[in-house]
Description:
This protein is an alpha/beta fold. The protein is 39% helix and 18% strand.
Amino acid sequence: MLTINLNCDLAEGGKNDERLMPLISSCNIACGGHFGNAKTVETAVKLALQHDVKIGAHPSYPDKRNFGRKSMKIDIDTLEKILKEQILLVKQTAENLGGNLHHIKPHGALYNQLKHDKEKAEAVVKLILEIGKELVLFVPPKSVIKEIAAKNNLKTFTEGFADRAYQSDLGLLPRTKSGAVLHEKEAIFQQVLAMVKEQKVSLKNGSKIQADFDTICVHSDTPNSVEILRYLHDNLKQENIKIE
């Protein structure tokens, strides 16, 4: 039987966290950079433990005004300090409540930069290994950070997006472009099905490219995210694909 990990970015101020948590394998908890504080982190961790969902930290640039979606000029030492504080907030909260931190998924502009910025990627990998060698790092495909993590024996999950269109380099089509975000649940299901069964991604021109994903993200701020995840659950089961 084929398996797939479904993940979702949560504790970002949305109203659906309680409905989304039972439908996912892993959650990425905002931890004060782009959104959140100790209280929102605690609420999310409790929900994750209740539903046996893997707990992840979702650190970002310290930029709540722009929701972490704009690059910031920060020296490496300061960036490491900021990210460490965010990650440890989730880790310590989880441990205090009887759970464990499973993974790290950088957010927004930082996540996109780590695809090609070697200096930042090396700093992030080094930091995660210092926090816990057992941790998993969620990474984009064909990325510099994936290569650096592999060289340093840091386990990674290559991440795909259920609800975003792709370019030929496996980068996401910018949100400013038409068709960048998928909204129809059947189209999203077909994209996920191809990712899991064929290990391929379809491009807008109709061609397909190889793409091996370990985890697939559905964005919680997509208006019909709960409906999308329920549809994925029902239809992946019919295809004999297990969500775990």
